[in-house]
Design brief:
Layout: E1 14-16, E2 20-21, E3 77-81, E4 84-91, E5 109-111, E6 124-129, E7 135-138, H1 139-143, E8 148-155, H2 173-177, E9 180-189, H3 190-197, E10 205-210, E11 217-221, H4 222-227, E12 230-235, E13 238-239, E14 249-251, E15 264-270, E16 285-286, E17 292-293, E18 302-307, E19 318-327, E20 333-339, E21 347-348, E22 350-351, E23 361-369, E24 374-382, H5 391-398, E25 411-414, E26 420-423
Parallel strand pairs: 6-15
Antiparallel strand pairs: 1-2, 3-4, 4-5, 6-7, 8-9, 9-12, 10-11, 10-15, 12-13, 12-14, 16-17, 18-19, 19-23, 20-21, 20-24, 22-23, 24-25, 25-26
């Protein structure tokens, strides 16, 4: 294999230490990446042999397409309690995916008591309580309402909680930070239904309840319900997957996952929150002073480098594209910076267009690895100016008793052998 050295380094000065290059480098033409074997001029098209699968007719049609059998390793990692198998999570393998939309079959899952087998013909939604006109709907009726589509991430408030541990946990990215996924959701704006129901002035909360065996419920401020909340019926163009709430879920863009009640069957307008388990004992945040934060709905800005990340192995020195995901529950991502020297210097990454509010944003930056040990990090800034905090800054603000809403910068240590490790830096 003939390695051609990367030759444009003089024209493209580093954007930061550790070999980070200008984010526009890959927009240039005529780059030699040095990763592919370059064939000599004498190579002929005849050298490309006719592959075995070209000698017979291919497979026929299928009613529902599946991933290539060669990609069977791209799966959700399941962690649940064998004594209560319906209570637990499965994680999106972010380190094996590209782009910004999570395939529906790989959307992370969080169930408190399993996935109910709902017959859509029997499912009903009740809107009642402090409303002038209670509404009782079947799905055919709901489908007659005007719908909208929007792309949005859902993140569990417990995502990334390993970050609170004293020592960095060694696992693939998806098993550390994969309780977040991003889809295109289609459904009826909740405001449409609430206007029809006529909220009474003393209605400040909506208590949402699911049709699972847990009958999981949470309280939602009416401001959010009237703002961008969606009664989602479709996910990435097809009806919701059972795991993600079929046939109907509440979507609250940018808010923690637990508020986005799946298998939605009831919305009760009330003058105060119901103080359900998942807004008191859970999904609250114990502070250093022993008091708990409650109703911390918004998921703050976060970013992770997906490529390379632990489990990947760099194949020798040279040019690479660092790539990752950033998102913010407050709106659009404004900037993502990457460091290859543990945070001493930062280069600005290219953001993939379109940058959508409360959605995954893919960032990329070219990097020339010289084979030495170094630390890769990313930090996101959202359109409100909020900057993803350093780990010790987050701990200083929130103490060490926390579990939910960990969003500090994530660092990968690159070893000279090309392997990567989760590190605190
Ligand atoms: N009815 C019901 N809704 C639910 C849950 C549940 O167990 N039951 N889990 C919640 C939690 S904690 C999260 S993080 C999200 C997860 O959504 P997903 O499984 O579609 O990823 O759903 C929320 N909605
Ligand atoms: Mo969650």
């Amino acid at each position: 294999m003939i390695q051609k050295p990367f030759s444009l380094s003089e024209d493209s000065p580093p954007s930061a230490g550790g070999g980070l290059l200008d984010r526009r480098l890959f927009l240039q033409r005529g780059l030699a990446f040095g990763t592919a074997a370059l064939v000599g001029k004498e190579a002929l098209a005849g050298d490309l042999e006719r592959a075995a699968w070209m000698n017979k007719a291919g497979d026929t049609f299928s009613h529902y397409g599946q991933p290539s059998p060669h990609e069977k390793a791209i799966i959700r990692w399941i962690s649940n309690n064998p004594a209560m198998p319906g209570n637990g999570v499965s994680w999106t393998p972010l380190q094996q995916l590209a782009g910004t939309i999570t395939p529906s079959g790989l959307h992370f899952e969080r169930h408190h008591n399993g996935v109910p087998s709902i017959d859509p013909a029997q499912h009903r939604l009740l809107v009642h309580g402090l409303v002038r006109n209670p509404i009782f709907l079947n799905l055919d009726q709901l489908h007659r309402y005007p719908m909208v589509s929007r792309v949005g991430f859902i993140e569990c408030g417990g995502n990334s909680s390993v970050g609170w541990h004293e020592e960095p946990t060694q696992a693939a990215l998806g098993n550390l930070h994969g309780l977040v996924s991003c889809s295109e959701w289609t459904g009826v704006p909740l405001s449409v239904l609430l206007e029809e129901a006529g909220l009474k002035t003393e209605a400040h909360w909506l208590i949402a309840e699911g049709a699972d065996a847990a009958a999981m419920n949470v309280s939602i401020p009416v401001e959010k319900a009237l703002d961008d909340a969606l009664l989602a019926l479709y996910q990435n163009g097809e009806p919701l997957r059972p795991e993600n709430g079929y046939p109907l879920r509440l979507l609250l863009p940018g808010w923690e996952g637990v508020t986005q009640v799946k298998w939605l069957r009831r919305l009760e307008a009330a003058d105060q929150p119901v103080m359900a388990r998942n807004e008191t004992a859970k999904y609250t945040e114990l502070q250093a002073d022993g008091k708990a934060r409650q109703f911390t709905f918004i998921m703050e800005a976060k970013s992770v480098i997906t490529h390379p990340s632990p489990g990947h192995r760099l194949q020798g020195t040279g040019l690479y594209q660092i790539s990752g995901l950033a998102w913010s529950g407050r709106g659009k991502i404004k900037q993502v910076e990457v460091s290859a020297d543990g945070g001493k210097s930062w280069g600005e990454a290219q953001l993939q267009e379109p940058v959508l509010s409360k959605s995954f944003t893919r960032f990329r930056i070219p990097w020339r690895w010289d084979g030495s040990a170094m630390v890769l990090k990313s930090r996101a800034t959202d359109e409100t100016g909020y900057v993803q905090p350093e780990r010790n800054q987050l701990i200083a603000e929130r103490g060490r008793n926390g579990y939910f809403h960990y969003n500090a910068q994530v660092a990968w240590g690159v070893e000279p052998d090309g392997s990567l490790r989760h590190v605190y830096a």
